[in-house]
Amino acid sequence: MRVGVSGYYGFKNAGDEAILEAIVQEVKARGHEPLVLSGDPRETAARYGVEAAKRAHPLEVWRSLGRIDLLLSGGGGLLQDKTSRTSLWYYLTIIGLARRRGKPVFVFNQSLGPLSPWGERRVQRALRGVPCLFRDGDSLAYARRLGLEAQLGADPALLLSPPPVEREPNMVVLIPKYGTEAANANLHKLADRLKGEGYEVVVLALQPGFDEPVLERFRSFTRELAWDPRRVSYLLAQAGYVVSVRLHGAILAAAAHTPFVGIAYDPKVAGFCRDAGAAFVEAPGDPEVLASAVLARHQPNWKAIEEMKTRARASFDQVLSKSHRGRVKSP
Q1: Which PANTHER family match (predicted)?
Q2: Which of 17, 27, 67, 253 has a CA-to-CA distance to 198 between 20 and 30 Å?
Q3: Own/partner long-range contacts of 268-273 (Cβ < 8 Å, ≥24 apart)
């Protein structure tokens, strides 16, 4: 079976690439072949050993949707219009085109929101009759308020196995994000505090083309810019603790069984941390509160994280099962 995958892929964002790597891993493990709509199909095809099509080429997208057996829309934070209305319109359009092609569609382990009233109406209309799996409890509750056919899943990136690496308990990885200047400033204060306490501080940025100016703020610390999820997983598995503004800094830390605290610049960060029983602070964060979490080595609820991994695996079994392949509802 050929499985179409639609998301923010091929743009060298470590979080989205981690999601894609996990989806490819799980789809292939079940004997199926992914076809990915990508911003850089040549890179995606070479990197993951999959078919890939240019996501912004209408005719190529239409032809690709005709060749798949079902479409997974996700994962990620696609169903929001905080970034732009155009982004939401794009992902809903792909769903609509696949349905017109007569293909089963699943909203797959996404977050939901933030949405404007306009966005809510568009989502309700476009997803009528579409089975949805959401990756956190807050999104699930929101979806049900909108009347969507929703279940609880989990982020696929939780299923990535960390590489074998020796843990360095004294190493703390800080993950900033462009566009969150106040949170980044507080991360710098935290870095100074931890350095004074004798910790090795590593500042890790996850999106080339955006995060370089953020790293300039941390010139006095060890810095790295990495979009390869395998490299990110290696560093997070090596660390003794992780403090992350970015969602997938927290998710990949959880996958590596490294304790973490989140800085919630967006509801999706709070949603994941809440489900994981992990500490988090609303952006821009308080350096002293963050330092206390690191110094106390505050742990998430590892049992809850294992349950999330179980839900993530089960979500693949569910959408790829024979009983769902023929399920098509007209838009």
Answers
A1: COLANIC ACID BIOSYNTHESIS PROTEIN WCAK
A2: 253
A3: 268/77, 268/111, 268/136, 268/139, 269/244, 269/245, 270/138, 271/111, 271/135, 271/136, 271/137, 271/138, 271/139, 272/135, 272/136, 272/155, 272/247, 273/300
Q: What are phi and psi for residue 104, nearest 5 degrees? A: -60, 140
Q: Which amino acid is at 260?
A: F
The model's pTM is 0.96
In order of their start, the domains of the chain are: 2-159+309-325 (3.40.50.2000), 168-300 (3.40.50.2000)
As a whole number of angstroms, the distance between CA 195 and CA 192 comes to 5
* Percentage, residues of the chain above pLDDT 90: 96
Confidence check: pLDDT of 311 > 60: yes
Please list, in sequence order, all residues whose beta carbon lies within 8 angstroms of the beta carbon of residue 243, skipping any fewer than 6 positions away.
172, 173, 174, 175, 187, 190, 260, 261, 262, 263, 290, 293, 294
d(C-alpha 33, C-alpha 41), whole Å: 15
Angle between helices 229-238 and 247-255 (to 10 degrees): 70
| Confidence label for 321 from pLDDT (cuts 50, 70 and 90) | confident
